[in-house]
Design brief:
This protein is an alpha+beta fold. The protein contains 16 helices and 10 strands.
């Protein structure tokens, strides 16, 4: 009897006052920020469910930029009704999406699909359709640059009819509705495999308004963010402005798989090998000095990602890749195996390797503030992507290419796998390659030559190890 009494006295006299002292300032902080939100941003508050937070950690960091643009090109005609049927079947009716239905800021689809009327698609092209993807890129910048303002739809879908009986399905989403991981998972479920990212709008600069809304349950986190932002002159290092060139090509999947089998590697490693040899030969042909190595970064999904409050980022594997080295692929993959994940998570290579052995594994977008040598960034990307960030030399060691049109640092290469091939898009700053014609030569000549050489070497290796290749060891 005496011990429980002492226990309760201890709780009432010591624990409760401390509990009240800690929670009261947090409650006042949260109340103030919510009042500010209701008074100054009714457009956002009105669009969210009452059970949701008014502002999220994504809004605080500004990591997802203002809008994310992704697209897929489908064979045959498509209408909003067919997309809605596909969405309902592939997403809404699946049990593992049920918990997300009340969280529209994490999961774009359910709430907005039921409550917002979708506008009819805009016809950018005349009768007969757009003739090429280049023309599609020409009509997107104005839409991308709109960003978000009161009265702007928080998400939208546009259908653009292309030549050859194809339809480009372009989705635009504001980051308040969908964080990167959930959004990309949705797209993977929603549409066919083979997504190719087009554009994202420019990153948002630091502002006191977003800092004030930041993590209002934890003011000290906002203070830390403000300190880091002051040190870095913004939430992200400034990229080098100026034009960038984009080029597209297709690689036969048969050749890519043959190289991957022969090297026992992941798809990004194959792409790294192609880029290593192609860049080296290209620089030799132009007389431009080639860097000895390039830092490559692979966005990697964090498996079994915890709840939003526990972990809000996806890791990055990074490695140095020498240019023109016969062992470039091996050195690159060795570097990846021992790479630590950006932030606090040191996840073993074995977790990620199975994901990259799939034709089109899970998509990824986020990183946290990261280590000192990795800038915070958001990359709406596809697996198989690698990003050479050091091509411009030491002055951009801490910069990162964004995918906004005409605004890039260094180079970004994305390879999307589909049924019988792979779609490669590469965007390079004008600081590296001075003309679109030179980029076309790099892609159409040197990259294809390098892949063909790697493919022939892989065939020779497979033919030499044919017997060993088919042996299967069975152990009880």
């Amino acid at each position: 009897m005496f011990i429980p009494l002492v226990f309760w006295i201890f709780i009432i006299i010591l624990v409760l006052p401390v509990y009240v002292l800690v929670l009261t300032p947090l409650a006042v902080w949260r109340l103030c920020v919510n009042l500010i939100a209701y008074l100054t941003r009714p457009d956002i508050v009105a669009s969210l469910d009452s059970r949701d937070l008014v502002f999220t950690g994504d809004d605080y960091y500004g990591r997802a930029r203002k809008s994310v643009i992704s697209s897929i090109i489908l064979n045959g005609p498509a209408t909003l009704n067919t997309l809605k049927e596909r969405f309902t079947k592939n997403v809404l009716d699946k049990p593992h999406f049920f918990k997300m239905r009340s969280r529209p800021y994490v999961f774009m689809g359910y709430w907005f699909w039921r409550h917002v009327e979708i506008q009819e698609e805009e016809q950018f092209a005349e009768v007969g359709g757009i003739l090429s993807e280049d023309e599609l890129n020409e009509v997107l910048p104005s839409w991308v640059s709109e960003g978000f303002s009161p009265g702007t739809p928080l998400w939208n879908i546009k259908l653009i009819h292309l030549a050859g009986n194809r339809t480009a399905v372009v989705l635009k989403i504001h980051h308040i509705i969908g964080d990167g991981v959930s959004f990309m998972s949705l797209l993977e479920e929603f549409c066919d495999k083979g997504w190719s990212n087009l554009q994202t709008s420019p990153v948002r600069p630091f502002s006191f308004a977003h800092w004030a809304y930041a993590w209002y349950n934890f003011p000290w986190t906002a203070l830390k963010a403000f300190r880091l932002a002051r040190i870095r002159k913004g939430f992200r290092p400034k990229a080098i402005g100026g034009p960038a060139f984009t080029c597209y090509t297709n690689f036969p999947m048969e050749k890519l798989r043959a190289v991957r089998r022969a090297q026992k590697c992941i798809f990004p490693t194959v792409l790294a090998g192609v880029l290593s040899g192609a860049f080296y030969k290209f620089f030799q042909s132009t007389g431009k000095k080639s860097p000895a190595s390039v830092r490559m970064i692979i966005p990697t999904p964090y498996p079994n990602r915890p709840d939003k409050g526990t972990c809000n980022h996806v890791g990055w594997l990074h490695s140095e890749m020498p240019l023109g080295d016969p062992l470039a692929m091996k050195k690159f993959e060795d570097g990846v195996r021992y790479s630590y994940i950006s932030g606090l998570h040191g996840i073993m290579w074995q977790i990620f390797k199975p994901m990259y052995l799939l034709p089109a594994p899970s998509l990824s977008v986020y990183t946290d503030w990261g280590e000192k040598n990795l800038p915070p960034a958001v990359l709406t990307s596809i697996p198989g992507s690698i990003t050479p960030v050091y091509l411009l030399g030491q002055e951009v060691d801490h910069s990162y290419p964004t995918l906004s049109l005409g605004y890039t640092t260094g180079c970004n290469a994305c390879m999307t796998t589909y049924n019988d091939g792979a779609y490669l898009s590469i965007r390079i700053s004008k600081e590296i390659i001075s003309s679109k014609e030179m980029l076309d030569v790099l892609v159409s000549k040197y990259m294809h030559e390098e892949l063909e050489l790697m493919y022939q070497n892989a065939l020779n290796k497979e033919n030499g190890n044919a017997v060993e290749h088919i042996q299967i060891n069975v152990s009880n």
